[in-house]
Amino acid sequence: EKAGYPHFMLKEIFEQPRSMADCMRGRIDPDKGTIQLGGIADVMDDLANANRVIIAACGTSWHSGLVGEYLFEYLAKTPVEVEYASEFRYSDPLIGEGDVMLVISQSGETADTLAALREAKERGALVLGICNVVGSTISRETDAGVFTHAGPEIGVASTKAFTAQVVVLTMMALALGIKKGHIDNKKAKKYIKELNAIPDKVDQILKECDDDTKEMAKMFTYAPNFLYLGRSYNFPVALEGALKLKEISYIHAEGYPAAEMKHGPIALIDEMMPVVVIAATTHTNDKMISNIEEVKARKGRIISIMNKENSDVKELSEYSISIPSTFDVFSPLLTVIPLQLLSYYIAVNRGCNVDQPRNLAKSVTVE
Ligand code: F6R
User: Fold this and answer.
1) Where do the SIS domain residues begin and end (predicted)?
2) Beta strand pairing status for 52-57 and 252-257?
């Protein structure tokens, strides 16, 4: 059932070109420049007229929510707040009619996310969901929603569910941007054509970067700490890269927006500290280069995820993984892939139980 792979996690990482394409199938039309999301068709007007959207989720799904915030605000000009579902629940939240609550959950059973949904519903908000498991409690209790269609995810560390969630958020943001008149048909075609090309680019990354990440993993297997830095759309990917590493390899790792480094974490950097920089967002490239120089000046070891043509970043890095370029807004769908592989290979080298890490469960049904 692992289709020849040693672990479900690796199988699921390699399934992503297909799971992402499945998620888009029948929903996007690159020639016409249109997007049809049947599950939320009836509430598109409400969504377009919403005062704001509050996204609530936990863990990796919360990270996809953070990517969603950038997508909705950039593509649809809809204000978004992202909340940890657990915190939302206990904060006497200011939410009501005219607001939309969007919950994101792979399993559709996470207790805190379910509680946040119920709280928002009780206060009169429209509640929407992005779930992977059809028939799950969250998918049944939301007013409307979009399934990710990533297929069953068995590995405890979420991989293909994350990318499918980001694909759904991208399609929702584009559909909303089109509806609200912020994206004209010409632009819509451009975006949708590029989105449609993403699964092939992921395939290319898996083919070209697998050996490199394996080699890199050997060098850093016994590092006690890792820092992940990203900016803009790739800041949530830094958080996700760090979470993947800590949950399966038990190495302490933290993700930061790159500019925050000098407000504290820079004190940690020395010749023992690997720093993974996600330098594939073109509009923040110069700033990222300054951050890399700051790390190098303190002898930190730079591992970069960068666009193929970015020789500046390559020259400054001890190790670099080149990925195909795409629009900055779609970049998380590509940059997360090598980070999943890196954490996988490090965990395997350390002899960890990759598919079932200690202390973790696939769905967290207690608060
Ligand atoms: C990380 C991971 C967890 C889940 C979180 C939410 O790899 O698996 O952080 O993302 O428990 O789970 P769902 O999405 O099922 O609500």
Assistant:
1) 43-183, 216-357
2) unpaired
Separation between Cα atoms, residue 226 and residue 215, nearest integer Å: 17
> Distance between CA 278 and CA 234 in Å, rounded?
7
Altogether, the residues listed in the chain come to a count of 367
Chain Cα centroid distance, residue 171: 14
Which stretches in the chain have pLDDT values below 70? none
pLDDT in tens, 42-52: 999 999 999 99
DSSP state of 181: T
Got the DSSP string for 123-166? TT-EEEEEESSTT-HHHHHSSEEEE-------SSS-SHHHHHHH
Prediction ipTM score:
0.98
Distance in angstroms (rounded) separating the CA atoms of residues 333 and 168: 11
Tell me how crowded residue 295 is: count the other CB atoms within 10 A of its CB: 22
Residue 160 is a catalytic residue: no
What pTM was estimated for this model as a whole? 0.97
Q: Which of 133, 340, 364, 365 to mutate to test the pocket of ligand 1 (most atoms within 8 A of CB)?
A: 364
Handedness of CA 344, 347, 349, 351 (dihedral sign): negative
Per-residue pLDDT tens digits for 177-214: 999 999 999 999 999 999 999 999 999 999 999 999 99
